[in-house]
């Protein structure tokens, strides 16, 4: 357990002034459910734990005069493990809010429990657009990005530049299926064609047979509908097969700065990707990136910056509401704007989607980089209303 003991006297007094009943409140506890040991550990993992700690510290370390606690656990990317931990935390350990969730399958499993226990849950890693679509919940916020936003930002740009035939290399679970579906819709709407797809298991070491099928399709674009270590392995092995040299391109529809760092600029150069955050965008992003780097020894991914943002926003909402009551806090989270190191134009919608600008980047050539982690050239800022699915189109039952 992580407990911040540094007093925040002024914040405590302000909180107590809201309501005389606050003295009866129990300590606020946040649970981080993450991947600490597998394919998504670099994009979230211990970096998300550290981002949560920084947010708690920035808030002042206390809520209603009592220390804010934090617990964390590895879900092993298994929905049943995630659900078991969440149930224990909510039933017996007094956790008020769970954040992170590394895969869409784990997120959807814990969302069902969130409804049962009426507890706040914030998804900062998982990406399926179903989280705020047909599976939406009044108690869940989806913070960083989703398969719709990435498909529309990257997919649209590639089709416009002539990449009009696609074949997908797809992780065989909800996340990968959602990327393939959402990007395929973009391609077809723009007049392109989807020639096929092949599914691979999560955490695949050998992509040979899958890449051969993609290569044989003759599609101009081999869309990587996967993430983390799977994306890295696929790109490395595609290089060995000479796929790009043979005229096909591999856009990473969901890719992170940690992936580029692992690949190196020689392999990653020229990739068109979309992110919600980049450490070198502006003074706020650079300041947070520097603090994170000092503690973790690497720059934050967009998921890690979003975990900081979501934690801080949740704490502000609890304080403003004067209670930990879930429905009251969720209403306050929707009311308050999101303004921090992650975004300066965010807002939480009724379907649980936190909308904000997304950014289209191209990975620099080695000779263009000025130093470690200087990896991206900004191509475009995509406003929230263009990046994210319109509220009316998601099929969320909460939307009237």
Automatic annotation (TrEMBL):
A Gene Ontology biological process term: amino acid transport
Keyword hit for Cell membrane: no
Domain of life according to the entry: Bacteria
InterPro entries, alphabetized: BCAA_transport, Leu-bd, Peripla_BP_I
Biological source species: Bradyrhizobium centrolobii
Family, as annotated: Belongs to the leucine-binding protein family.
Protein's name according to its UniProt entry: ABC transporter permease
Coiled-coil stretches noted in the UniProt entry, renumbered to this chain: none
Any Pfam family matching the protein: Peripla_BP_6
Residues spanning the signal sequence: 1-23
Sorted UniProt keywords: Amino-acid transport, Signal, Transport
Domain Leucine-binding protein: 28-364
């Amino acid at each position: 357990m992580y407990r911040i003991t540094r007093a925040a006297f002024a914040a405590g007094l302000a909180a107590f002034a809201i309501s005389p009943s606050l003295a009866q409140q129990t300590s606020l506890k946040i649970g981080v459910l993450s991947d600490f040991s597998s394919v998504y550990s670099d994009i979230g993992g211990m970096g998300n734990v550290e981002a949560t700690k920084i947010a708690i510290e920035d808030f002042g370390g206390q809520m209603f005069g009592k220390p804010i606690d934090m617990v964390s656990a590895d879900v092993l990317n298994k929905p049943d493990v995630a659900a078991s931990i969440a149930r224990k935390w909510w039933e017996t350990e007094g956790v008020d809010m769970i954040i992170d969730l590394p895969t869409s399958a784990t997120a959807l499993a814990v969302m069902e429990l969130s409804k049962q226990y009426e507890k706040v849950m914030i998804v900062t890693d998982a990406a399926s657009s179903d989280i705020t679509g047909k599976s939406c919940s009044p108690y869940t916020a989806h913070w960083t990005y989703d398969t719709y936003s990435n498909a529309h930002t990257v997919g649209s740009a590639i089709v416009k530049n002539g990449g009009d035939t696609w074949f997908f290399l797809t992780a065989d679970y909800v996340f990968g299926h959602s990327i393939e579906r959402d990007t395929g819709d973009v391609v077809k709407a723009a007049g392109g064609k989807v020639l096929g797809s092949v599914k691979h298991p999560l955490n695949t070491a050998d992509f040979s047979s899958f890449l051969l099928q993609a290569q044989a399709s003759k599609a101009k674009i081999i869309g990587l509908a996967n993430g983390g270590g799977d994306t890295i392995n696929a790109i490395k092995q595609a290089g060995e097969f000479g796929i790009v040299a043979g005229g096909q391109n591999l856009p990473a529809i969901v890719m992170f700065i940690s992936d580029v760092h692992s690949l190196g600029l020689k392999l990653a150069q020229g990739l068109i990707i979309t992110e919600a955050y980049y450490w070198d965008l502006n003074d706020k992003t650079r300041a947070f990136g520097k603090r994170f780097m000092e503690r973790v020894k690497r720059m934050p991914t967009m998921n890690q910056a979003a975990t900081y943002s979501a934690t801080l926003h949740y704490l502000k909402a609890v304080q403003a509401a004067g209670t930990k009551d879930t429905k009251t806090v969720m209403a306050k989270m929707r009311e308050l704007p999101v303004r921090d190191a992650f975004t300066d134009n965010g807002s939480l919608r009724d379907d649980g989607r936190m909308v904000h600008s997304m950014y289209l980047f191209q990975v620099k050539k080695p000779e263009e980089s000025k130093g470690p982690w200087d990896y991206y050239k900004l191509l475009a800022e995509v406003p929230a209303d263009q990046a994210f699915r319109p509220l009316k189109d998601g099929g969320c039952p909460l939307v009237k």
